[in-house]
Amino acid sequence: MNMLSRMKFSLAAIPLTEIVTELRRYFVMLGMAFFAILFMNVKPSIYWLQFFYYFIAMFVFLYALSLVTSTITVLVPDFYNAYTAVLRVGMWISGVIIPVDSPTFPLLLSNILKINPLYYIIQGFRETLLENPVWFWHNVTANLVFWGITIILLVVGAHIHMRFRSRFMDFV
């Protein structure tokens, strides 16, 4: 602990280093996905350029989420268990496993689940690479909801991080 207190490392960069560390796994999976896509005879198109937009959106959202959750986890250690459970459920209902766009899925529930930022990112990658491609700016409502949630998370995360950063060493 004495060594931690003498470090001149920005605590706000710790969530960022964790995200960057996990990117290698992401790129391996992405390479396998691109290989599978090309194996399925999906032809590259101009729409594939918006992959970079969705990658940046994913990165910013993950940083905002990790800034909030890492700060709360330091303050309330039991929060991590609840957070991982909620995140697992969030992945299940984000459209990865359950097809929320299915005509048999209840419309009201489908609209509520589409507010999930993970749905926006996953559906954006799908539309870009696999399905009927559309430009990301065509769905203004989804863009505003996603970026609104992301900006709120960034503001809240920055606020609680700045408020409690002087006391982090007491909690560690």
TrEMBL record:
It is a multi-pass membrane protein. The keyword Transmembrane helix applies. GO terms for molecular function: ABC-type transporter activity. Residues 7-129 form the ABC-2 type transporter transmembrane domain. Keywords: Cell membrane, Membrane, Transmembrane, Transmembrane helix, Transport. It is found in: Cell membrane. It comes from the Bacteria. The chain crosses the membrane at residues 26-46, 52-75, 82-100, 135-160. One of its GO terms (cellular component) is plasma membrane. Its main location: membrane. GO terms for biological process: lipopolysaccharide transport. InterPro entries: ABC2_TM. Belongs to the ABC-2 integral membrane protein family. This is ABC-2 type transporter.
